[in-house]
Amino acid sequence: MVVTIDHDQQIFLGDQPVNIHELPQRLQQAGGDPSRQVIYLRADQTVPFGAFASVMDAVKQAGITNVSIVTQPLDTKSGAAGGN
Question: Residue ranges of the domains in the chain?
Answer without folding.
Answer: 2-73
